[in-house]
Amino acid sequence: MNAPQLILASASPRRRELIARLGTIALRIEPADIDETPLKAELPRDYATRMAREKALALPQGAEHVLAGDTVVACGRRILPKAEDGDTARKCLELLSGRRHQVLSAIALRAPDGKLRERLSVTEVRFKRLSDEEIRDYLAGGEWEGKAGGYAIQGSAEGLIAGISGSHSGVVGLPLFETRALLKSAGFALG
């Protein structure tokens, strides 16, 4: 029997790097193109799960498994945007300063027969109280560009985080514990 094949429905280089940590998997990259607008009054948990599911289902059905994920930074019931400009990143960091927030990282695995498996990782992150200078210095580095909540934990922002409870890889963009469990349940041979 041939080993299962996997399509990663993401253009994220971080997700590619993270999945490589799980071992050798025949991997093809095919980003899913979907509307990522939250629904009115949609809760962060529901939004993350829906996005991962819709990405997994967006690619044509074939002989491969499709793995998709979505990572959401939430402050209470509020879904923080991906920072596309410095002003948005600053507003996110000012909101997160000195507070706890959640990072929800949902994954969905669609089998060739259409069966869908899903998992959700919830991680609590706490930023130190950030000074204007710390925010300005962080923004000058540019790591915030395109990042949910305006920061990348795998970069210099990690030095501004006072605590984390949950999955570090989930905050980066792909919760490896949950991903490994899904892939193993689908017959992937992982170490």
TrEMBL record:
Gene3D superfamilies assigned to the protein according to its UniProt record, in alphabetical order: 3.90.950.10
Record localization: Cytoplasm
Molecular function GO labels: nucleoside triphosphate diphosphatase activity
Enzyme class: hydrolase
Cofactor(s) it depends on: a divalent metal cation
Recorded catalytic activity of this chain's protein: UTP + H2O = UMP + diphosphate + H(+); dTTP + H2O = dTMP + diphosphate + H(+)
Cellular component GO terms, alphabetical: cytoplasm
Keyword Hydrolase applies: yes
Site (Important for substrate specificity): R14, T71, Q154
Role according to the record: Nucleoside triphosphate pyrophosphatase that hydrolyzes dTTP and UTP. May have a dual role in cell division arrest and in preventing the incorporation of modified nucleotides into cellular nucleic acids.
Entry's family note: Belongs to the Maf family. YhdE subfamily.
Name of the protein this chain belongs to: dTTP/UTP pyrophosphatase
Species this protein is from: Croceibacterium xixiisoli
